[in-house]
Amino acid sequence: MYCSVVFWSYFQGVISVFGGSSSDSFLDMRGIFIKHSFTSFQTFSQLCTFDYSTKLVLVHKAPWYIRDEPRFAYRGLLLDTSRHYYPIDVIKHILDSMSYAKLNVLHWHIIDEESFPLEVPTYPKLWQGAYTRWERYTVEDAYEIVNFAKSRGIHVMPEVDVPGHAESWGKGYPELWPSTSCREPLDVSKSTTFDLVSGLLSDMRKIFPFELFHLGGDEVNTDCWTSTPHVKQWLQNHNMTSKDAYKYFVLKAQEIAISKNWTPVNWEETFNAFPESLNPRTIVHNWLGAGVCPKAVAKGFKCIFSNQGFWYLDHLDVPWDQVYTAEPLEGISDASKQKLVIGGEVCMWGEITDTSNVQQTIWPRAAAAAERLWSRRDAISSGNINKTALPRLHYFRCLLNGRGVAAAPVTNQYARSQPNGPASCYAQ
């Protein structure tokens, strides 16, 4: 009985390009390899198929010798729990499905301007910004998610987006708003703002052991600062423009994160605005478009690729083949600079997803990016990918369905749309 190693396993002779090694590895920012064996079990599980004639589980063409390793250390999925709340069991199911595709970082975008669902013991009123009292994550919930992820070889990188995207913080602590009528960015003029950020990060450091911490920094509209009298006066007293204050806030937040032994990750706007001022440990997270990672690595920064034109999963009109052919190292020819691109991430923003449709929005397109992030560049299918890569993606989608993951049909015009009619799973 024919057995493939599914979509990401592209074999050449006896060596699998995307099959799984004896231990997966994530290279942290100190150069230490953190070993996981979970991916090897995934590879083995996908070599096994059930023969309906003999009613036995078979391994096709055994024995196998598989030598493999990931192309990129960082292979991520962003999950946004601020625009819609996901119960703990749903997050666990997503973590399970990530492990099937050998994605190894959950970027947990926990809070945003719409809601603040996380418990912060030092500042217990913060989660008054949750949608309801039933849509919250306790400290114990967060621990549970981190430990569940760890058992599957997945790190959890939390995000606290500052100074913008923070209106929900003021539901419990309105003094964080510049004014009640102008509620974000966070009030840059008060030392208590940074005291709270520090307390929040201290509490989170107890939960999240992963070295990377995402500080956001994107889409900061500083109109509130220049239109609120006391903040405007503070700017004048410190001889700052609103752009200067934006830089001041980002750099101060970085200092706080670094003091807690975190490596800061920031969205690309911070790099675009003041690259010379960012802490040299900063990891620049691309999202707006092409060309940012080449500029970032040219200045010595590490970079994560998430070009929204291809790897934003809420863009339902982006087909699988465009996800598949997006290349994190595009425009970077120098081998030493290529090493500074630590990987990439598909982003599941939550405006148009909730528990009812999140898995079929993530899958199977996220698997196309997963192959790109695992396999060697020269081993990625090229030419007519409808004949080479597409059958593997069909197979992987059916494998996901067989494991209870609501992965959508592969080639429909819009992601997550229903089947077009009766057909085999392997042809939709």
From TrEMBL:
Substrates-to-products reaction catalysed:
Hydrolysis of terminal non-reducing N-acetyl-D-hexosamine residues in N-acetyl-beta-D-hexosaminides
Q: Which Pfam families match?
A: Glyco_hydro_20
GO CC terms in record: membrane
The Glycoside hydrolase family 20 catalytic domain, residue ranges: 72-376
**Keywords from the UniProt entry:** Glycoprotein, Glycosidase, Hydrolase, Signal
Q: What are this entry's molecular-function GO terms? A: beta-N-acetylhexosaminidase activity
Q: Does the keyword Hydrolase apply?
A: yes
Q: Tell me which residues this entry annotates as catalytic.
A: E219
Family classification = Belongs to the glycosyl hydrolase 20 family.
Protein name per UniProt? beta-N-acetylhexosaminidase
Organismal lineage:
Eukaryota, Viridiplantae, Streptophyta, Embryophyta, Tracheophyta
